[in-house]
Write a structure and sequence with these properties.
By secondary structure, the protein is α/β, with parallel strands linked by helices. It contains eight helices and ten strands. It binds zinc ion (ZN).
């Protein structure tokens, strides 16, 4: 092929890649604004969920005990293909550590197996990866029946959102804000609790808004450390969020328990503000 022909081919490929990228972005934007199964929120108290994506080891060693000290349980979104692996930022928790979290009452939830953006997968690839994720979690502990999902990188399309509607109970985004009034269960808003990208002032405002609107605030957290990564949360910041929630009467619950309370179907009491370091937890 001539030099001009090679250049024309390269330009065509670049154009196609840009067009595909723009299509995915547009689809994500539509998915954000178009609730597929909106639910009126019936919770009688404001709620907060502390969720941990990818589950770095420090989320297990530091994050989970801190929640337990406040009588709460977290939701851990596990990308099963990453377990035990070292990334540029952290080492991911092991299968044994995930099993331990489950035994201690925390919710274990889906985050795909290979941690690929759902916007890059077609219907079959996405279904098969999610099934792999589900089976891997059940292998870790036969009691784990994961029902809730978080989009890897927060990215989705209208097609994947629609697909998830029949596969899981909820899908968490990373679109910031408080869930209030009407919930879009497949685009649950979340606030990243990260020292580098969020301030104490904004945290206070978010907690105030949750209390005032009787809403549901969902925190998205990665590592928890005194020296957190660029995506991480210091122990002080996490403690500030926990203490701020308790002080305002905002109940700390898992995502699954929050959905029960929002639907008005919760049947068991959810413990609050009870030191439970060495006890079995039952947070739903
Ligand atoms: Zn992730």
């Amino acid at each position: 092929m001539s030099a001009a022909g090679i250049e024309a081919g390269s330009t065509t490929r670049k154009f196609a890649a840009t067009a595909a990228h723009l299509t995915r972005r547009a689809s994500h934007r539509i998915a954000r604004h178009l609730p597929l199964a909106p639910r009126l929120m019936h919770n009688s108290t404001p709620l907060v969920s502390f969720t941990f994506d990818d589950v770095p080891e420090s989320a297990y060693t530091n994050g989970a005990p801190m929640l337990e000290a406040y009588g709460g349980c977290g939701t851990f979104y596990v990308a099963s293909g990453l377990l035990g692996q070292r990334s540029d930022f952290w080492t991911v928790a092991s299968a044994d550590e995930i099993a331990d979290l489950y035994r201690r009452g925390h919710e274990i939830a889906l985050h795909s197996h290979l941690h690929r953006s759902s916007s890059l997968l077609d219907v079959d690839e996405f279904a098969s990866d999610l099934q792999r994720n589900r089976e891997a979690l059940q292998k870790i502990h036969s009691g784990i029946a994961a029902r809730n999902f978080a989009y890897p990188f927060g990215q989705c399309t209208l097609a994947r959102k629609n697909q998830l509607n029949s596969l899981v109970r909820s899908s968490r985004s990373i679109y910031t804000g408080v869930n209030r009034g009407v919930l879009d269960p497949h685009y649950v808003r979340a606030t990243e609790l990260c020292d580098a990208r969020f301030t104490r002032e904004r945290l206070q405002a978010r907690l105030d808004e949750t209390q005032r609107s009787r809403g549901w605030l969902v925190f998205c957290i990665h590592d928890v450390s005194d020296t957190p990564s660029a995506f991480g949360c210091s122990r002080k910041f996490l403690d500030h969020a926990l203490e701020g929630a308790i002080r305002r009467g905002i109940r700390i619950v898992t995502v699954d328990a929050a959905l029960d309370l929002i639907a008005g179907t919760a049947t068991k009491p959810i413990p609050q503000k009870k030191p439970v370091f060495a006890q079995e937890l039952s947070c739903g």
